[in-house]
Design goal:
With about 150 residues, the protein is mainly α. Helices cover about 65% and strands about 5% of the residues. The protein is globular and about 65 Å long.
Length: about 150
């Protein structure tokens, strides 16, 4: 007789809902990356550069948890795709900044627009007060999760 199968590990309640939400956003991010013709890591790079406006490869490597060599390869690919360009660092001739190109700004603008429309459609069943409460709760939970990440 075969051994019984091990029990399934499932979440319930809020942890299950949070996992489903994160998984849905991750699937959306993967679709966005595919539509933009970039990898998921390249998309994260574009989002960070867009938020920062101008960032050094070292800062980007620290943010993404990668080596500067890996960032050099990613940046090279995004420069070749016309999404990023390199800008000389005014205080250090051996360093540079990465910034979005005009095409990169257009791509990010489209991504933000599409994402905002998808979320608006996804929350259409909520009234203004419910949406405000959901926004506040999501912001609070995200901040708490980040706080717990820094604790050792």
């Amino acid at each position: 007789m075969p051994a019984p199968a091990p029990p399934a590990h499932t979440l319930t309640g809020f942890p299950a809902a949070a996992t489903a939400f994160v998984s849905a956003l991750d699937a959306n991010r993967q679709r966005i990356a595919e539509d933009a013709g970039v990898s998921a890591t390249e998309l994260r790079t574009l989002f960070k550069v867009a938020r920062s406006v101008s960032i050094t490869p070292k800062e980007l490597a620290d943010y993404l948890g990668m080596t500067t060599g890996a960032i050099t390869a990613i940046a090279r690919r995004l420069v070749e795709a016309g999404l990023l360009h390199r800008v000389d660092h005014p205080g250090d001739r051996r360093s540079l900044y990465l910034e979005l190109t005009p095409h990169g700004h257009d791509v990010m603008g489209g991504i933000h627009h599409d994402f905002s429309e998808m979320l608006a459609a996804s929350t259409a069943s909520l009234d203004a007060d419910q949406l405000a409460a959901f926004t506040d709760a999501l912001t609070s939970v995200a901040a708490e999760v980040r706080t717990r990440l820094t604790r050792s």
